Amino acid sequence: MTDATSQTETDAPTIEFRSDMSVELIRSSAADADVLFAARVSTQGEQTLESAAAGTEASGRDRGLINYLMRDRHGSPFEHNSMTFYVQAPIFVFREFMRHRTASYNEESGRYRELRPVFYVPANDRNLVQVGKPGAYDFLPGSPEQSELVDAETREASARAFESYQKMLDAGVAREVARIVLPLNIYSSMYVTMNARALMNFLSLRTKVEGTHFPSFPQREIEMCAEKMETVWAELMPMTHAAFNANGRVSP
User: Which of 27, 61, 126, 206 is catalytic?
Assistant: First the structure.
């Protein structure tokens, strides 16, 4: 969902409100064959990607090896690949991303460029009420009144903050100082590069899926990013993805 709202001044930037996350695969070197050739060097000596990927159809032996590696948590063969994603999301989502120190990040800088007035506002179906205790929260739908309150206050606070930001820029204040008034729901963008093992660790913590060995309770906004990343990865490495799910979504 994307919704644009203009400020009253004709020369002011148009403020945009979004409820979605953007994830785009920029480049990749990632296939199930990467896992196979890395694993088989242990017992067969030097391998090539061509020999590991020989044939057009994956064999049961290949699937069995990947499942064995996943089940018994032999993790290093899953590291010989790479995926780079371009992500657009609110800053508070990026702060959760960067808790995962098994990836490489480069984020746009509010010191060197004027930030765009794009802000996150929860969609109407976003759960708003938190019940339970730490580590076992449930999130339930809010009332219509709560939804209206969140929407209205988020839009008003975002517009007011960006107006203050622009006033300081117009007065000649440095971007690195003016940005301090901006809220966490302003969108940023970054490149994130990781291998399949790191991505599985990320997905195990940032998605809530029935039947996992270790249930997770992620914030919905980062889960939206994780779901899109998982869809891309499942197409690149279908056997590895299947083994991940079959073994309780535990990173090896």
Answer: 206
Q: Cα–Cα distance between 176 and 108 in angstroms, integer?
A: 13
- C-alpha to C-alpha distance for 145 and 156, rounded to whole angstroms: 16
Report pTM: 0.88
Q: Which residue numbers belong to the known binding site for FAD? A: 76, 99-101, 107, 195-197, 201
How many Cβ atoms are within 10 Å of 147's Cβ, its own excluded?
Answer: 17
> 2-124+185-246 has which CATH code?
3.30.1360.170
- Residue 95 designated active-site: no
Annotation: binding site: 76, 96-101, 107-111, 179, 195-197, 201, 206
Confidence band (pLDDT; 50, 70, 90) for 46? low
Residues contacting residue 192 through CB under 8 Å, at least 6 positions apart: 84, 85, 87, 97, 103, 104, 105
Q: What is the pLDDT of residues 3-31, one digit of tens each?
A: 544 444 446 689 999 999 999 999 999 99
